[in-house]
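Customer escalation, tier 2.

The customer says the design service returned an amino acid string that "doesn't look like it belongs to this structure." They asked us to rerun it and document both sides in this ticket. The original structure tokens are below, unchanged.
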């Protein structure tokens, strides 16, 4: 079902199911996808959120407040996706295709949520001044800055390795591991 999604986008959809269960819902709605997106900390959607939102936790609280708690009588088995979520997924894939991306990532899920205007996620996002146009503008700026929107899974690694101290720190750790292994092999400790 998610074979054209990046690993981070797949994780978001899996986490949305966990959010639904935590809230005692027997379905996955846009609110669950948004809560999962807010938890994901390394994808492109998170980079967009950092530019547009000052308080991610506040958005999460507002989302939970609008989504009422479910009953304790949860059906065992696979959670169904609401029609809104199915439309979000379709819109996200369309957004990825329009940008000629080989996979659908977290930013495309965010754009899909904003297109499903009747969903709780879109209501919360627009109340917090996150719009389709604003997200699209940030993604366009990212693309102009040579951020590969098709590859979000190494964002954290790339940003860490761009720090001048990172290569030295990694080399130091490797040396320590080697010295410890050699020392132990020689019976030094």
């Amino acid at each position: 079902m998610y074979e054209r999604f990046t690993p981070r986008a797949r994780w978001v959809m899996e986490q949305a199911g966990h959010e639904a269960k935590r809230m005692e819902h027997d379905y996955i709605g846009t609110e669950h996808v948004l809560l999962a997106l807010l938890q994901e900390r390394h994808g492109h959607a998170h980079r967009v959120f950092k530019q547009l939102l000052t308080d991610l936790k506040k958005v999460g609280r507002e989302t939970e407040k609008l989504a009422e708690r479910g009953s304790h009588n949860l059906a065992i088995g696979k959670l169904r996706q609401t029609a809104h979520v199915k439309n979000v997924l379709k819109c996200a894939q369309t957004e990825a295709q329009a940008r000629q991306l080989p996979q659908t990532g977290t930013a495309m899920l965010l754009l899909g949520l904003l297109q499903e205007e009747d969903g709780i996620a879109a209501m919360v996002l627009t109340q917090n001044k996150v719009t389709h146009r604003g997200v699209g503008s940030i993604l366009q700026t990212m693309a102009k800055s040579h951020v590969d929107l098709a590859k979000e899974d190494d964002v954290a690694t790339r940003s860490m390795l761009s720090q001048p101290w990172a290569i030295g720190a990694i080399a130091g750790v490797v040396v320590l591991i080697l010295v410890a292994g050699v020392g132990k092999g020689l019976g030094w400790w």
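Tier 2 assessment: The sequence is consistent with the input. The radius of gyration is 20 Å. The chain has ten helices and two strands. Sent an explanation to the customer and offered a walkthrough call.
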